[in-house]
């Protein structure tokens, strides 16, 4: 499992590769809404949860999938990109887990992600 307590941060960019990687993990009625990729890791937003994909080892054959259900989000914060700080951030606090922080490239539409989370978590 990813060590979220030590401030794991991903610089994510929109990419559909990871949506295909998690299809076998989806339950009935669950659909991928959006997916993002960092260097080797990724994050997939579905209509039920957020799935964090952590590729491990030199060969990348070992993969950890962490499921973060929207129902466990207690607070979330969105920071948009600025003029000099081109990255945007999403920070979520999960009941029983603590803070999870994801960093996105500046062109990511965090307002859309915020609406997705609000729609399922509130």
Task: Describe, in plain words, how this protein is organized in 3D.
The chain has about 120 residues and is mostly beta strands. The protein has one domain: Bacterial Pleckstrin homology domain (PH-domain like, Roll), CATH 2.30.29. It has two helices and eight strands; from the N terminus they run E-H-E-E-E-E-E-E-E-H. Strands 5-4-3-2-1-8-7-6 form an eight-stranded mixed β-sheet. It comes from Rhodovarius crocodyli. This is PH domain-containing protein. It holds the Pfam family bPH_1.
CATH class: Mainly Beta
Global structural class: mainly beta
Which architecture name does CATH use? Roll
> What proportion strand?
35-45%
Dominant shape: globular
Q: Domains counted in the coordinates: how many?
A: 1
Q: Please report the distance between the alpha carbons of the first and last residues.
A: 26 Å
Compute the gyration radius: what is it? 14 Å
Number of strands: 8
Q: Fraction of residues in helices?
A: 10-25%
Pfam families: bPH_1
Protein name: PH domain-containing protein
InterPro entries: PHb, PHb_sf
Domain Bacterial Pleckstrin homology: 11-120
Overview in brief:
By secondary structure, the protein is mostly beta strands.
Tags for this model:
PH-domain like; mainly beta; PHb; single chain; 122 residues; PH domain-containing protein; 2 helices; PHb_sf
């Amino acid at each position: 499992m990813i060590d979220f307590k030590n401030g794991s941060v991903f610089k994510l960019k929109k990419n559909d590769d990871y949506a295909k990687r998690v299809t076998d993990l989806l339950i009935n009625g669950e659909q991928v809404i959006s997916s993002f990729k960092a260097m080797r890791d990724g994050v997939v937003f579905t209509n039920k949860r957020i799935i964090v994909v952590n590729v491990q080892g030199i060969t990348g054959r070992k993969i950890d999938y962490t499921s973060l259900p929207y129902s466990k989000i207690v607070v979330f914060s969105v920071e948009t990109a600025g003029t000099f700080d081109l990255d945007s951030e999403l920070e979520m606090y999960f009941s029983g887990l603590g803070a999870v922080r994801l960093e996105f490239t500046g062109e990511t539409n965090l307002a859309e992600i915020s609406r997705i989370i609000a729609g399922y978590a509130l």
